[in-house]
Design goal:
There is one protein chain. This protein is about 15% helix and about 30% strand. It is α+β, with helices and mostly antiparallel strands. It has a seven-stranded mixed β-sheet with strand order 6-7-8-9-4-3-10. Strands 1-2-5 form a three-stranded antiparallel β-sheet, with no helix packed on it. It is globular. The two termini are about 25 Å apart. Bound molecules: zinc ion (2 copies).
Length: about 170
């Protein structure tokens, strides 16, 4: 990843929603939890975590759908109001300051490979974890895995948030 060098455009499948990530994401999760398997209809979800103010809506609008999450605190999916494809979500634990952009909706998803595999306890057995990418059975601490530049960006978020907590960009 090379933050700030290039933008990352994406959108829904009917092309009503178009958005831009202004920089590289903070970190990319490949989540193998059962919730992500259900919500994606696939074996995992691929989410690029990025500051909300670095995601710009270029066209269209999103509809926010409250969805249950494993913690009970909920997850808010932003979907195209026409084709209903989810373009990003927010977890209650991470607050509105961090968006989980669905990597598959980027025009060039290959540019955001996973930085970590999480909840591998429930990964589908045929999926072989790639060597060289961190993998954890459940969740993890950002301080132990995020690169220094992303931790600095996280500090800025925490400072800006003050009262409302941005705890650890943790899905909960
Ligand atoms: Zn659409
Ligand atoms: Zn998950």
């Amino acid at each position: 990843m090379n933050p700030g060098v290039a933008v990352y455009d994406g959108g829904c499948t009917c092309r009503f929603v178009r958005y831009r990530m202004a920089t590289a994401p903070l970190f990319v999760h490949c989540c193998h939890c059962r919730w992500c398997q259900r919500e994606s209809g696939s074996a995992f979800a691929l989410n690029a975590l990025i500051e909300a103010d670095r995601v710009q809506l270029l066209a269209g609008d999103v509809e926010v759908i409250d969805t249950p999450s494993s913690s009970g605190k909920g997850q808010r999916f932003s979907r195209c109001p026409r084709c209903r494809v989810a373009v990003w979500s927010n977890y209650a634990g991470a607050g509105d300051a961090v968006r989980f952009v669905r990597v598959g909706t980027l025009d060039e998803p290959d540019r955001c490979p996973p930085d970590i595999h999480i909840f591998t306890l429930s990964k589908q057995p045929w999926f072989v974890l790639p060597p060289g990418t961190p993998a954890v059975p459940e969740y993890y601490k950002a301080g132990e895995y995020w690169p220094a530049a992303s931790l600095e960006r996280r500090q800025a978020l925490l400072a800006a948030a003050q009262a409302p907590r941005v705890s650890s960009a943790e899905p909960s």
